Amino acid sequence: MSRSVLVTGGNRGIGLAVAQAFAQAGDEVALTYRTGEPPRAATELGCLAVRCDVTDAAQVEQAYKEVETAHGPVEVLVANAGITRDQLLLRMTEKDFADVLDTNVTGVFRVVRQAAGEMVQARRGRIVLISSAVGLLGAAGQTNYAASKAGLVGFARSVARELGSRGVTCNVVAPGFVETDMTKALNDRQRAAMLGRVPLGRSAQAEEVAAAVRFLASDDAAYVTGAVLPVDGGLGMGH
Ligand code: NDP
């Protein structure tokens, strides 16, 4: 049965691969973009593109209304939008720290809170948050990002406890090194160092993350909540 799916930050990278995976499975998919024209990929996939900056609660509310009007209340929410502002601790500005937390944690809070009301009423819903292996491993130069991604685990587990009795699950996917714009910024030395720590010896394709998200939103994962599913080639083993 087709479901109403919303993917934040769905215009490129992992979010786009997730939107594509749900659309190809026959779901009604809405994806968000921040600026400019609706992404061409959305039209090609038959997805609804809604403008939304997750740092703005009014835009989140407006985007949700548009999705609800077009596809009905969101049944599967994938909170994927995220940013990095890397810098060593001693040089990290308060703004760079706060901006990452605002997008990666408070942004997730805004979209989850928006979607949760209808899910509770319907007594069913699937929430999947995109965290990172870095959230549990830590990474030099990423105190802000690691703090934000670790924060999602506590957030998800709290949501799982609050909403479990209403048939709503909340899980986390923790990707390792995925080939997207975000990791293009790494130089060859950083890339080699990172891949050297991955038992599978390669980076992931965004589609491999999308497959894990789809699993957590599927009937097969009906009894899975509060879980952190690594998709990291073994990078974070032992978490
Ligand atoms: P990209 O940089 O390729 O894409 C990030 C997406 O988030 C874009 O769609 C971007 O929109 C959107 N976004 C950023 N800020 C906001 C905002 N304030 N409001 C709405 N949308 C926003 O990153 P990836 O695809 O690589 O990453 C997706 C998620 O996966 C992120 O949460 C990231 O932290 C996580 N992740 C990525 C890994 C990797 O190796 N690539 C590894 C582990 C986790 P816009 O196009 O407008 O900028």
Percent in helix: 40-55%
Strand content: 15-25%
Instruction: Find the CATH topology.
Output: Rossmann fold
- List bound small molecules: NADPH dihydro-nicotinamide-adenine-dinucleotide phosphate
Largest sheet: 7 strands, parallel
C-alpha end-to-end distance: 36 Å
Number of domains: 1
CATH architecture: 3-Layer(aba) Sandwich
Category by helix and strand content = alpha/beta
CATH superfamily: NAD(P)-binding Rossmann-like Domain
CATH class: Alpha Beta
Number of helices: 9
Structural key phrases:
single chain, 239 residues, alpha/beta, Rossmann fold, 7 strands, 46% helix, binds NADPH dihydro-nicotinamide-adenine-dinucleotide phosphate
Q: Can you offer a commentary on this structure?
A:
This protein has 239 residues and is α/β, with parallel strands linked by helices. It has one domain (4-231): NAD(P)-binding Rossmann-like Domain (Rossmann fold, 3-Layer(aba) Sandwich). 46% of the residues lie in helices and 15% in strands. The chain has nine helices and seven strands, in the order βαβαβαβαβααβαααβ. It has helices at 13-24, 40-45, 57-71, 94-122, 134-137, 143-163, 181-184, 188-196, 206-216; strands spanning 4-7, 28-33, 48-51, 76-79, 125-130, 168-175, 228-231. It has a seven-stranded parallel sheet with strand order 3-2-1-4-5-6-7, with helices on both faces. β2 (28-33), α2 (40-45) and β3 (48-51) form a beta-alpha-beta unit. α1 (13-24) packs across α9. The mean pLDDT is 96. The chain binds NADPH dihydro-nicotinamide-adenine-dinucleotide phosphate. NADPH dihydro-nicotinamide-adenine-dinucleotide phosphate (NDP) binds next to α1, β2, α4 and α7.
